[in-house]
Design goal:
alpha/beta, 6 helices, 5-stranded mixed β-sheet, 36% helix, 4-stranded mixed β-sheet, disordered C terminus
Length: 196
């Protein structure tokens, strides 16, 4: 829930500053796989739109925050849930079409499941580093770094950094093509913040 609030605050501030500076303002909507009300955690809920169909023209950046797990075992269990499988498939398709993804904390495992980590250098929370090294030997895991940008897959060790990194990416790249996909615990709760 804090990642959604932080990201929305950053986007709102960016829109306000962009208007004052006379540059393009980011626009966004919050989405989920099916649309509707989504429970985030700590009793917070968010109204979402349905995730739209993608086109080959969508080269945006998706941000995927942590999945709310606290051990390699709970992360592995979480990755077997329907919404995580759906999110991994969506991430794979997005990257295949030329889009970028960024993941924080345990959601690096979604990038792994999507098949986008091979040959990459990534970071992850310290408690998950050994698990990722053994399960994805064709990528380099550097848990000493807070943020790693490596082509189509950017990773952050902790979730707090991902919103700022996404904002920086949008400013350095195309500020009109910032798209964030957020995955939270619970059944069918793939949630995204879209900015265009």
């Amino acid at each position: 829930a804090s990642n959604v609030a932080l990201t929305l605050d950053i986007l709102s501030t960016a829109a306000l500053m962009a208007k004052q500076m006379g540059v393009a303002q980011p626009k966004w909507c919050v989405v989920s796989a099916k649309g509707g009300l989504v429970a985030l955690g700590n009793g917070l809920q968010l109204t979402t739109d349905k995730l739209p169909q993608r086109t080959s023209k969508d080269k945006s950046l998706w941000i995927v925050p942590g999945m709310g797990v606290d051990s390699p075992r709970s992360a592995a269990d979480r990755m077997q849930e329907a919404d995580a499988l759906w999110a991994a498939k969506a991430i794979h398709s997005h990257v295949q079409r030329g889009g970028k993804v960024a993941a924080g904390c345990s959601s690096v495992l979604l990038l792994q499941a999507a098949g986008v980590l091979a040959g990459k250098t990534v970071t992850v929370s310290w408690w998950l580093a050994s698990h990722l090294r053994s399960s994805q030997p064709d990528c380099t895991v550097d848990a000493q770094r807070m943020v790693v940008a490596d082509g189509t897959a950017d990773t952050q060790a902790e979730d707090a950094e991902q919103s700022a990194a996404a904002f920086d990416e949008g400013l350095e790249g195309d500020p009109d093509a910032l798209r964030m996909v957020l995955l939270f615990g619970g059944a069918a709760l793939a949630v995204g913040l879209f900015a265009w």
